UniProtKB/TrEMBL annotation:
Family annotation (Gene3D superfamilies): Ribonuclease Inhibitor (3.80.10.10)
InterPro entries documented for this protein: F-box-like_dom_sf (IPR036047), F-box_dom (IPR001810), LRR_dom_sf (IPR032675), LRR_FXL15/At3g58940/PEG3-like (IPR055411)
PROSITE patterns from the UniProt entry: FBOX (PS50181)
Name this protein carries in UniProt: F-box domain-containing protein
Coiled-coil regions listed: none
Lineage of origin: Eukaryota, Viridiplantae, Streptophyta, Embryophyta, Tracheophyta
The F-box domain, residue ranges: 15-68
SUPFAM superfamilies listed in its UniProt record: F-box domain, RNI-like
């Protein structure tokens, strides 16, 4: 039985349609696919071969290397993928997400971060393994185009060559090992910072937040270690405090310059007190 003429005609045109799609439409299609599937489009036609190498947004997670018959160590597979990206990718990468939180240890990604620093990275998300803290290379702090930075489970040391993130508007640090001095310096060198999320329970020293454009602040840890020194635009604050009594809070010190504050939420948890304080309105 012969197939209908319309269907046969459609099938014969399909390769041509794919081959002659404008680049901007091809880019949109690829960006909506998981990275693994985007790479597979290389088999569609000569035009699609290695088209994924020009993607400006990339997301790498365990779905790239996890299979039912894993013969190679996940870290080895990940290292091979990173090498291919370094070798084949062309043009800028404006958004990059790396989620390897489930690996036993952090693979070597210093070279790739250096690669991103030279390719106009604007949005960077790193979710790293919980084990030994990965020390971020100094190249990360030369990414002058960064607008969003999200870091999980890593360590930040001295910022000797750091000139500031002059375009950064959101910063999230969770499970990050960092000294009070370095944290203060990092925040104060982000003049456009609007959103700040900190989950740094190990830092017991006082940290002064100097962020004149900050409008939203979420903090988890010990509230006595935070002083909102210069935050005239702060509208919303959410603070989760561990191991501190409500009567020990120095509100004058914590909220030294919050003239625009409209919403405040406290969650207090410790052996002697468990409660919730909420404030709305000025």
């Amino acid at each position: 039985m012969m197939p209908p003429k319309g269907r046969k005609h459609c099938r014969s045109l399909l390769p041509d349609v794919l081959s002659y799609l404008p680049d901007n439409i091809s880019d949109v299609i690829l960006m909506h696919l998981p990275c693994k599937d985007a790479v597979k489009t290389s088999i569609l036609s000569k035009k699609w071969r290695y088209h994924w190498c020009r993607l400006t947004e990339l997301k790498l997670d365990e779905s790239l290397w996890k299979t039912k018959k894993d013969l190679l160590n996940p870290t080895v597979k990940f290292t091979k993928i990173i090498y291919q990206l370094l070798t084949l990718h062309e043009g800028p990468i404006t958004k990059f997400t790396l989620n390897v939180a489930h690996l036993e240890s952090c693979p070597e990604i210093d070279n790739f971060i250096c690669f991103l620093s030279r390719n106009d990275i604007q949005h960077l998300v790193l979710h790293l393994p919980l084990g030994k803290m990965y020390k971020l290379p100094s190249a990360l702090f030369t990414c002058s185009q960064l607008r969003h930075l999200n870091l999980h489970n890593c360590s930040i040391h001295h910022l000797s060559a750091f000139q500031g993130f002059n375009k950064l508007i959101s910063l999230e640090l969770c499970g990050v090992t960092i000294s009070s001095e370095v944290l203060e310096s990092l925040i104060s060198h982000c003049p456009l910072l609007e959103q700040l999320v900190l989950d740094i329970a190990e830092n017991s020293n006082t940290v002064e937040i100097n962020a004149p454009m900050l409008s939203s602040f979420n903090f988890s840890g010990n509230i006595s270690s935070i002083c909102l020194k210069n935050v005239p635009c702060l509208v919303k604050a959410s603070l989760e405090c561990d191991y501190i009594k409500a009567e020990d809070l120095d509100f004058a010190k914590v909220f030294e310059s919050c003239s625009a504050l409209e919403y405040l939420l406290f969650n207090l948890f410790n052996s002697g007190y468990s409660g919730r304080l909420r404030y709305e309105g000025r």
